[in-house]
Design goal:
Distance between the termini: 19 Å
Protein name: Solute carrier organic anion transporter family member
CATH topology of the largest domain: Growth Hormone, Chain: A
Helix content: 55-70%
Subcellular location: Cell membrane
CATH architecture of the largest domain: Up-down Bundle
Radius of gyration: 29 Å
CATH class of the largest domain: Mainly Alpha
Shape: elongated
Main location: membrane
Oligomer: single chain
Pfam families: Kazal_2, OATP
Structural class: mainly alpha
Number of strands: 7
Membrane topology: Multi-pass membrane protein
Number of domains: 3
Largest sheet: 5 strands, antiparallel
Number of helices: 27
Length: about 675
């Protein structure tokens, strides 16, 4: 019970820091002025950390002191989390693009600079930066590397928790409760992301340099695309929690006393029913003390044994492709909601944490409960896993109809009033109405005209006067606001215009479908775990889970955020620019293109994974006789084997005589 509680808290801690990273994706992108593809590399570095040591940890760790290895992992994980927050204390203060009058009311400049001798503030600032010999080494230009290294360290520390923790439970728990315990651990772990996203919501409301600058002087609001929250604060909190989570494991024993029902055998009863032992003596000797060299000799035979199991291989392929879909979707979900529905980072994280994550928790727990209540065997677990995937992706299809139209941005999504659309947006930003102004196309300092159209900057809107300072600045005599035949004075206010009237309603529909989809996909989580554990030999459980996790990390966790990020970058309409020149973070996306790329990629991958899941079910049916299928439905016989049907029947007599005891029947 102590181990179960401690492992649950560790799952909570690692899930909290992992989900907090997801919630800060857009903040990191803006703070370090980097594109989504590079943020994807940072996100994938966690999996690279796993890749470095997961085979060693899962194989040798199973034969060493498992609880202490988990405790050491927690310390490493906390060190990485602290490292991620460090750049904030070494970088300069965050600077955003703003017209001078919005920063200092004593400066009086016309946004539209008709006098060519006057230089716009942003251009002047950039030219001064370029003159500085240390421009390429400007503070913060490469600080994102520390975030990447910290996340890499987090990945290394997290490695032993899953393969060693889950198998420790499966080894020492009463068999009929194993699935429920694993379901409980995973469910408690889901509370981590709830707190992670809520923490992300809280920190996103606070300005990035809180405590370092006067907040009254900040001229942007959380609704602004340039707003960066106190992203670093949450990492400090998550690091402390990781340290606390690791403490109990240093005081737990290497082995626990086995339950009475399992003392007579080191194998589980369901293992005994559908796995044929080639050499029982070899299996028994596994549990005896062996030298490290002898362990290493058994490595490649064990690997060959795993990859010779068709059910394991097919389920591995299905999982890899499905996790590509899910990891990419979850990583960029906050960005998608912000860009598609015009929500703030704070509200986005709050909604995901309070609505989506509990649905996932309920789904995972439901999967474990269904398996225990109905005594579902291996074949039933495969059916449940397939069904949840199929209906989940079917629901996801409906989200294509729940998007918002592009915001009206002059020169990017709509032409200037009275002009024709121009294919090249860089040329389209300039029009007759602002031809007398000396404007930069690289700036992003949006204002909202009284006609409901957003303009990239006050200069490009042709505004010739301004009043007020900070967030309350109002611009007057804007030649591009309204039509040319309008004689009235046109004005604009700071910040972009709100999305269309239909957008809040679409956002509500999106949330409802998203919650149902999250629940449906999550129901298959626990059955999938049980399918893995019951289709391999007992002494290979840790190794099999380690290989499974390795494959997910390498082939899904690392590439998915990167290529999803690259695909999302292709939908960008307006890029920001760095102070020393070069492309920065994206300021505006094409809503329709973003929707089709983001949801389309998710659905295509999900559909492919379903085909592999069907193959798993087909192989399981083929490997089992009709009698096996009947018994499997009652939870009395498994339907998973690694031998051919011929070998199965040849060994069936020995299988029943030597390993089948009625009192050890398993009902998961």
């Amino acid at each position: 019970q102590i181990f179960l509680g401690a492992l649950s808290f560790v799952y909570f801690a690692k899930a909290l820091s992992g989900s907090y990273l997801k919630s800060t994706i857009t903040q990191i992108e803006r703070r370090f002025d980097i594109p989504s593809s590079l943020v994807g590399v940072i996100d994938g570095s966690f999996e690279i950390g796993n890749l470095l040591i997961i085979i060693l940890v899962s194989y040798f760790g199973a034969k060493l002191h498992r609880p202490r290895i988990i405790g050491a992992g927690c310390l490493i994980m906390s060190a990485g989390t602290f490292l991620i927050a460090m750049p904030q204390f070494f970088m300069g203060r965050y600077r955003y693009e703003r017209f001078p009058s919005t920063i200092n009311s004593t400066v009086s400049l016309s946004p539209c600079l008709q006098d060519k001798t006057q230089t716009p503030f942003s251009v002047l600032e950039k030219s001064q930066a370029k003159m500085n010999t240390g421009c390429e080494k400007e503070a913060g230009s490469s600080m994102w590397i520390y975030v990447l290294l910290g996340n890499l360290l987090r990945g290394i520390g997290e490695t032993p928790i899953q393969p060693l923790g889950i198998t420790y439970i499966d080894d020492y728990a009463v068999e009929e409760n194993a699935a429920l315990y694993i379901g409980c651990v995973q469910t408690v772990a889901i509370i981590g992301p709830i707190f992670g996203f809520l923490l992300g919501s809280l920190c996103a409301k606070l300005y990035v340099d809180i405590g370092f600058v006067d907040l009254d002087s900040v001229a942007i609001s959380p609704k602004d695309v340039q707003w960066v929250g106190a992203w670093w604060l949450g990492y400090l909190i998550a690091g402390v929690i990781s340290v606390l989570a690791g403490i109990p494991f240093w005081f737990l024993p290497k082995h626990l006393p086995k339950p009475d029902s399992r003392k007579d055998s080191s194998t589980s009863s369901e293992h005994s029913k559908f796995i044929i032992e080639e050499n029982k003596d070899q299996h028994t000797s596994y549990w005896q003390q062996t030298r490290l060299a002898e362990m290493a000799k058994d490595f490649f035979p064990s690997l060959k044994n795993l990859f010779g199991n068709p059910v394991y291989i097919l389920y591995l392929c299905a999982s890899i492709i499905q996790f590509n879909s899910l990891i990419g979707m979850v990583t960029y979900k906050p960005k998608y909601i912000e860009q598609q529905y015009g929500q703030t980072s704070s509200k986005t994280n709050f909604v995901i944490g309070l609505i989506n994550i509990p649905a996932v928790a309920f789904g995972i727990f439901s999967g474990g409960l269904i398996m225990k209540k109905f005594g579902i065997g291996v074949l039933g677990a495969a059916k449940l896993s397939l069904g949840s995937s199929f209906f989940g992706y079917l629901l996801l299809l409906s989200l294509f109809a729940m998007g918002c139209e592009n915001s009206d941005v002059a020169g990017l999504t709509v032409p200037y009033p009275g002009t024709k659309p121009v294919p090249d947006y860089e040329e389209a930003l300039f029009s007759e109405c602002n031809s007398g102004c000396s404007c930069s196309q690289d700036d992003w300092d949006p204002i909202c005209g009284e006609n409901g159209v957003t303009y990239v900057s006050a200069c490009l809107a042709g505004c010739r006067a301004s009043n007020g300072s900070g967030k309350s600045t109002v611009f007057f005599n804007c030649s591009c606001v309204g039509t040319f035949d309008s004689s009235q004075s046109s004005s604009a206010v700071m910040g972009p215009c709100q999305k269309g009237n239909e957008c809040p309603k679409m956002f509500l529909y999106f949330l409802v479908i998203s919650v149902i989809t999250s629940y449906t996909l999550s129901v298959g989580g626990t059955p999938g775990y049980i399918l893995l554990l019951r289709c391999i030999k007992p002494h290979l459980k840790s190794f099999a889970l380690g290989i499974y996790t390795l494959a997910i990390r390498v082939l899904a966790g690392i590439p998915a955020p990167v290529y999803f990020g690259v695909a999302i970058d292709t939908t960008c309409l307006k890029w920001g620019s760095k102070r020393c020149g070069g492309r920065g973070a994206c300021r505006l996306y094409d809503s329709s293109a973003l929707r089709y790329v983001y949801l389309g990629l998710t659905l295509v991958l999900g559909t492919v994974s379903i085909f592999f899941s069907v193959a798993v079910l087909w192989v399981l049916r083929k490997k089992s006789s009709p009698q096996d299928e009947t018994l499997s439905a009652n939870g009395e016989r498994g339907a998973c084997g690694t031998k051919s049907r011929k070998d199965h029947f040849v060994n069936s007599d020995r299988l029943i005589q030597s390993t089948y005891w009625p009192e050890k029947e398993t009902r998961l």
